[in-house]
Known about the structure:
This protein is mainly alpha-helical.
Amino acid sequence: MLFQHKRHPADLGAPEIRTFLTHLAVAGQVAASTQNGALQALIFLYRNVLKQPFHCPLEASRSG
């Protein structure tokens, strides 16, 4: 939420999620497992908490 200027996750779409995951990989230089953990947490949030479909943004830059 902080990365997206406190916008509610229900108001965010694939472009914002893609930007966040790319930010983790590029600016944050996190390990691939950390980026994958963040993606799994987002999938859980959207599917189980918000009850919204989640389409995996595979175009995000991946940690290497």
